[in-house]
Design brief:
Strands 1-2 form a two-stranded antiparallel sheet. It has a two-stranded antiparallel sheet with strand order 3-4. It starts with a helix and ends with a helix. The longest helix has about 30 residues. About 75% of the residues lie in helices and about 0% in strands.
Length: about 450
C-alpha cells in the first residue's frame, strides 16, 4: 500500500510542464541512441577500411562468405564498398524490421516496461561482441533483436504519459526527439574518435557502455514511467474487434508508412555514402589538426538540438494564426526538403573532382536542410501514430511505423551500391528526385488522408 502510494505520487510529478517520467525516458533513449549512433558512425568505415578490405580477415568472419555469396547471386560480384553498403542496409533495415514483433511481444506477453529491459540487455551484448572480428555478424544480430524489443516500446511509453487530447503530446515527442539527438551528437565524438584513433574495438566498446548506462537510468526512474499501456485499457477493450473507423485509421497510417520509406532511404545516406564522402572527399584539417571524419555525423543531431525548440515556437505562432500545416503537409514538406538538400551535393560533386578534397561546408549546408526536413517528418510521424492508432494494437502500429524504416534503410544500402557505379553528381541528382517526388505524393494524398485521420492531429 505504501509503495503504491509513493509510486502514484511520483507518477504525478511534473518537470518543465511535463510528467517527470518523460525525462527518465529522455535520458534512457539518449544513452541507447548514443550506443546505436556510435555503432553507425563506425560501421561503414570499419568494413571498407579494415574488416572487408582484407580477404583473410573477411574469410574469418562467421557467416560472411555465405552472406556474400547470397548477395552476389542476386546482384553480381561486388566491390568492398558495395558489399559494405549492402550489409549496412541489411543491418539498419532489420533494426527497424524487428520493432514490429517487439511491439507484438509487448502488447500480448511482456508489456512495454519489461520488453524495454530485454532489448537493452540484448543490445549491450551485441556491442561487446563487436570486440571479436569473427563474431561481427552475430553481434549485428544481437543489436537487431535488441533494438526490436527496445525501440517501439519506449516510444509508446512517451505517448502513455499523456491522456487523450492532451496538447502537450507533440511537444513531448519533440523533447524526446532531442534526447535521441543528444545521444547521436555525443556518440561520433566519443565512439568515432576512439574507433578512428585508438582502435575500432574501443569505439564499439564505448557504445556498449552507453547502453548499460541507459539501462541504469531506466531502472533508477522506474517509478516515474508507465509500466505498460494496457494499464489504461480494460480487458474487454484490449481484446475487442476494431471498428470500421479504426480500420480506416490503420489504413491511413499504412499509406503514410509506405511514403515514409523513401524519406529514410535517402536520409540515411548520412551513415553510408555521405560518410564515405566525408572521409574521402572532405578536408578535415583545422588549425593544423586532423579531425576524425566521423565527427561529420554529429552535425545533424547538434542542429536538431538547436533548431527543434525554435521550430516548436514557429509552429506555435502558426497555430495562433490558424496557419499551422497539418501533419500530412508537414511530412510532405520534410520529404521535399531532404530531396532538395542533395542539390548542394550535386554542386559539391562538380566542384570537387577526382581525388581532390573540398570544404566541409558542402556537408554542413546539406545537413542543415536535412535537419529541417527531419524535424518536419520524424517526430510528427511518431506523435501521429500514438494519436491515431487503435489502443488495442498501439505498440504493434508503432512497430508498423518502424517497419517502414526497415524498407527505407535497406533501400539506403541498395541505393548506396550505385555510388561506385555512377558519376557522383548523377548519383546525388537521383537522390534529389526521389525526395521531391515522394513529397509531392504526400501533397496529392493529403485530402483523403485528412478525411480519415483528421486535419489537426
Amino acid at each position: 500500500m505504501v509503495r503504491s502510494a509513493v509510486r502514484n505520487r511520483l507518477a504525478n510529478k511534473e518537470f518543465l510542464g511535463h510528467p517527470a517520467g518523460l525525462f527518465v525516458l529522455f535520458f534512457t533513449e539518449m544513452w541507447e541512441r548514443f550506443s546505436f549512433y556510435g555503432m553507425r558512425a563506425l560501421l561503414v568505415l570499419y568494413m571498407t577500411k579494415y574488416l572487408l578490405v582484407d580477404p583473410a580477415k573477411a574469410n574469418e568472419v562467421i557467416g560472411y562468405n555465405a552472406l556474400y555469396d547470397w548477395l552476389a547471386g542476386m546482384f553480381g560480384e561486388m566491390t568492398v564498398q558495395q558489399a559494405s553498403s549492402q550489409i549496412y542496409g541489411i543491418y539498419t533495415g532489420l533494426v527497424y524490421f524487428t520493432p514490429f514483433f517487439g511491439g507484438m511481444i509487448a502488447d500480448r506477453i511482456l508489456g512495454q516496461y519489461r520488453t524495454v529491459y530485454l532489448g537493452g540487455f540484448l543490445m549491450a551484448i551485441g556491442h561487446f561482441l563487436m570486440a571479436s572480428e569473427r563474431a561481427f555478424l552475430l553481434a549485428l544480430l544481437f543489436l537487431i533483436l535488441g533494438n526490436g524489443a527496445f525501440k517501439p516500446n519506449i516510444s509508446t511509453q512517451v505517448g502513455s504519459l499523456y491522456k487523450e487530447g492532451d496538447p502537450r503530446r507533440d511537444s513531448a515527442f519533440t523533447i524526446f526527439y532531442m534526447g535521441i539527438n543528444l545521444g547521436a551528437f555525443l556518440s561520433p565524438l566519443i565512439c568515432g574518435t576512439l574507433g578512428q584513433t585508438m582502435g575500432w574495438h574501443w569505439g564499439f566498446g564505448a557504445a556498449g557502455v552507453g547502453m548499460l548506462v541507459g539501462l541504469v537510468v531506466y531502472w533508477a526512474g522506474s517509478d516515474l514511467v508507465p509500466k505498460d499501456s494496457m494499464h489504461t485499457i480494460t480487458k474487454d477493450e484490449s481484446s475487442r474487434a476494431l471498428t470500421a473507423n479504426e480500420w480506416k485509421a490503420v489504413g491511413a497510417l499504412i499509406v503514410l508508412a509506405i511514403l515514409n520509406i523513401m524519406f529514410w532511404a535517402i536520409y540515411e545516406q548520412q551513415g553510408n555514402t555521405l560518410q564515405l564522402w566525408a572521409d574521402d572527399k572532405t578536408n578535415w584539417i583545422f588549425a593544423g589538426v586532423q579531425i576524425p571524419s566521423t565527427w561529420f555525423q554529429s552535425i545533424n543531431p547538434l542542429m536538431i538540438i538547436a533548431f527543434a525548440p525554435l521550430l516548436n515556437i514557429f509552429w506555435g505562432w502558426q497555430a495562433k494564426q490558424g496557419k499551422e500545416p497539418s501533419s500530412v503537409v508537414k511530412m510532405g514538406l520534410g520529404c521535399v526538403m531532404v530531396g532538395m538538400a542533395y542539390v548542394l551535393m550535386i554542386l559539391a560533386a562538380k566542384a570537387v573532382p577526382g581525388e581532390e578534397k573540398g570544404s566541409v561546408m558542402w556537408l554542413v549546408g546539406t545537413i542543415f536542410i536535412f535537419t529541417l526536413g527531419e524535424l518536419y517528418l520524424s517526430p510528427i510521424g511518431l506523435s501521429l501514430v500514438t494519436k491515431v492508432s487503435p489502443k488495442p494494437i498501439l505498440s504493434m502500429m508503432m512497430g508498423v511505423w518502424f517497419l517502414s524504416s526497415f524498407f527505407g534503410n535497406y533501400g539506403t544500402g541498395y541505393i548506396g551500391t550505385f555510388y561506385d557505379k555512377m558519376p557522383k553528381d548523377a548519383y546525388f541528382l537521383m537522390l534529389c528526385l526521389m525526395g521531391v517526388v515522394t513529397g509531392v505524393l504526400f501533397f496529392l494524398l493529403r485530402s483523403p488522408l485528412e478525411r480519415t485521420i483528421g486535419k489537426h492531429v
